Amino acid sequence: MNVTKTIFGEIDNRRVESYTITNNHGMTVKFINYGCIITDIMVPDREGKLENVVLGYDTIEEYLNERAYFGAIIGRVAGRITGAQFELDGETYTLEQNENSNHLHGGFHGFNRVIWDAAIIEEQDTKGVEFTYVSQDGEGGYPGTLKMSVKYLLNNENEFTIHITGLSDKKTILNCTNHSYFNLSGDIKRDILDHTLTLKCEKFLPINEQLLPTGDLADVAGTPFDFQNGQKIREGTRTEYPQNLLAGKGYDHPFVLDANQDQEILLEDQESGRMLIVETNQPGVVIYTSNQLQGDFKIRGVQAQPYLGICLETQGLPDAIHHPHFPTIVLEKEKQYNAITKYRFGVI
C-alpha cells in the first residue's frame, strides 16, 4: 500500500493538494485538501476492471463553480436548518441563508469551501490522510471555536473509512457527513436507476415543500420507501407517491437506521457486479438520488442529468435542533464529536 501527493491546483495563491491511496489489490481513493473532496474511488467490477465509482471533476476550477457538493465533507451541520437560526440555552443564533430563507450544508463557506491542513498516515495495515481545520467562533453564525479532524483510511480489505471528530470550546451544534455521489456502473456508463438499494430501516422522515423534515417518523412499509428487502432506485422515480414527487421524482429523504455497523446499507449494480456495504455509528442516512442534478455542464465528459449518482449521507437527522424527539446534534463544550463510516467494496 502507498500514499502519494501531487498538486491539484491553486486558490488565492494557496496550493490545493491531491492525495492518492492505493492498496495491494489496486483499489484507489483520491481526494483533495479543498473541502476534503473525494474525487475518485477506483474499484474492480466482477471481471476485475478498475473504474471510478464516484462523481467528480479533474480541475479545481470546476469544484469552485459547482453547487452539487460532489465528494465533500459537509459541516458544520449537514442538511437544512429551518429559518437559518436555532436556539441554544436561551440564546438565538442566526446563520447564513443560502437556500431561500433556510441554512443548507453549513452555509456559503462551510467545510466544503475551505482548504484543510493535511498529514499522511502510514500504519502497518492502513494508509491514509488526516485533514484538520479550526472553525473560528462565529463562523457561519455558529458558536464555539471548533477543532475538526477528518481521517480518510484505506486497508487491503477494500475498506475505506471516514472518521470525523470535533472539539468545541463552547456548547454548539455539529452534524457532519460526506457528500459523495456513487455510481457503481463505473466511469458513469449508466445512471443509477437500476442500482438496488437495501436499508435496515423501518422508518423514514417525510419532508415538506422546502425539503425539511416535518418532524414525523413514518413507516416505510407499503410505500416506495421500503428498502428492507432491496429495491431498485427506479421505483421511486415513476411513482405518484407524494413524498417522491416533493423530492423531484426520487429521493431526498432521511432514513432512521435500525442497526449500526452491521451491514445496514447495501448498494448493488447487477450489470457491473459491484456492490458497496456502508456501516456507520450515526443514527440516520439521507438518501439523495440526484434528482436536481442538471444544468449546462459536464461531469468528466458526461452531460449533467438527474439520477447520475446516489448519495448515502450517514449523519444525525437533519434539522434535529428543531425537533427535540430526534437524536440530539448538540455538542457540549470540550466533549468530542465522533462519527465513523466504513465503505466496503466487493462484487456480487
TrEMBL record:
Presence of the UniProt keyword Isomerase in the record: yes
Keywords of this entry: Carbohydrate metabolism, Isomerase
EC number: 5.1.3.3
GO biological process annotation, one example: glucose metabolic process
GO CC field: cytoplasm
Protein's UniProt keywords contain Lyase: no
Coiled coil: none
Molecular-function GO term, any one: carbohydrate binding
Stated name of the protein: Aldose 1-epimerase
Binding site residues for beta-D-galactose: 179-181, 252
Location of the active site: 179, 313
PROSITE patterns documented for this protein: ALDOSE_1_EPIMERASE (PS00545)
